[in-house]
Structure formats: C-alpha cells, structure tokens
Amino acid sequence: MNLSKPITVLLADDHAMVREGLRALLAVAGPFQIVGEASNGREAVDLVRTLRPAVVLLDIAMPLLNGLEATRQILATNPAVRVIILSALSDDDHIESLSAAGAAGFIEKHSSASIVSQAIRDVAAGKTFFSPAIVQRLGRDLAKLRAPDGSFRPNPRRLTSRETEVLQLVAEGLANKQIAGELRISVKTVEKHRQQLMNKLNIHDTAGLTRHAIATGVIESRVRITIT
To answer: Does position 84 have pLDDT exceeding 80, yes or no?
Structure first.
C-alpha cells in the first residue's frame, strides 16, 4: 500500500459522540481520510462493500451485529480490508476470538490518540497491532494463539456466526419472529439455532443467554469508556 496517500478509514460505533471524537482525533493525527460512518454492525458490513476503505475502526459491541460477526462478514467478502477492534473488553478470550476472525488490530477504548493513529498506520502497512497494555499483559502468550502457519487457532466450542447473531438478538430482547425477520430466515430455523446455542452453552433460559452475551462481549452494558 502506498502510505504517501491518505489511509481511508471507516468508523463503526453505535454512539455518534464516539464517532465524532474519533473523526476529530484522526483529522489532526495523520494522513487519514474518513470515508464513512456506521452506527451498527450490519451497516458497517454494507458500507465496506460499497466504500472499500483500507481500514475499519470497529467497536466490538454494536446493535444488530456485533464487532466479531461484522469482522467475519467484512473479511469474507473483502479480505483486503484491515479491521481494528476498539473495545473496553480486552481479556484473552476476546482477543483470541477477534484475532481468529481476522481482526488485524485490537486497541482499548482508553487508548491515546497516538496509539489509535499508530494502529491504523501499522495495519494499513500489513502489520498487526495490539495496544501496549495488551502486549505487556500477554507477552509471549500472544504467540500461543497462533498455529504453525501463523493463523490463529480455532476454538471448536465457539459458536457459529449464525448462532452468535441469534444470541445477540435474543439478548437484545427480540422474539423469534422478529429475529427471523431481521435475519431473513424462517422462525423454525431461528428455533433450531437457538436450541443449538443453548446446548453448546448449557444455558436454557433467556436471562442466562443475556448474561452470557454481556459477559462475552456479544452485547455490552451501557457503561462506556471514551478515548482521551
């Protein structure tokens, strides 16, 4: 990639204030061009198809489609796009799942402007980027997430993309009929996916699924951490 040209960036976060802050930050931080903004995961996937940015700065917890599934869908159709996850959650499981999905970078929501801009530059140049705090905490353990060919090791217990979509919509309070309409599948298929994810998680009520979705970052509580 020719880094003498502005790096095109798509911002995806469900809070307009966060997007405005990122836009202002990047306007003075380097040669970046904001080509679009998305307020939910589905919108992010659609905008990547039409705008083809070099980098997507993506919140992990968004309505309709969370950052993990959005990353999978973005890269399935646009493998050249580089995705950076921006999140308040940085535990090992989240880093593993997002890296395995193809995310090229992971930065925490309290990261400085210099960290955000460096992450964009690095991933645009074909590198990976983890916040310094994550690197310090995990150290050599980051290498353990990778298979011999350099890819991230799959987790056989991980939910499928569709199961995670259903989990998110259940946790957001949608009924099976509403989920079917949102995903454009039959109610019977929704029921099948719902049963499969319950079996995998050994959770058999909606409240439990909601707690699991919050705990694993599929959705998040309304507590937000802003960039400084």
So the answer is: yes
Choices 3.40.50.300, 3.40.50.2300, 3.40.50.970, 3.30.360.10: CATH for 7-144: 3.40.50.2300
β-sheet bridge partners, residue 84: 57, 105
Query: What pLDDT, on the 0 to 100 scale, is given for residue 156?
Result: 41
- Angle, helices 206-215/187-201, rounded to nearest 10 degrees: 70
Confidence grade of residue 117 (pLDDT, cut at 50, 70, 90): very high
Average of per-residue pLDDT across 19-47: 92
Considering the chain, tell me which residue range(s) the CATH 1.10.10.10 domain(s) occupy: 161-215
Name the residue among 5, 8, 20, 104 with its Cα closest to residue 47. 8
Compare 123 and 89 and report the one with higher pLDDT. Answer: 123
d(CA 119, CA 73): 22
| pLDDT bucket at 4, cuts 50 / 70 / 90 | low
Question: Per residue, what are the HEC states of 54-98?
Answer: CEEEEECCCCCCCHHHHHHHHHHHCCCCEEEEEECCCCHHHHHHH
pLDDT score, position 139: 58
Which residues of the chain form CATH 3.40.50.2300? 7-144
CATH classification code of 161-215: 1.10.10.10
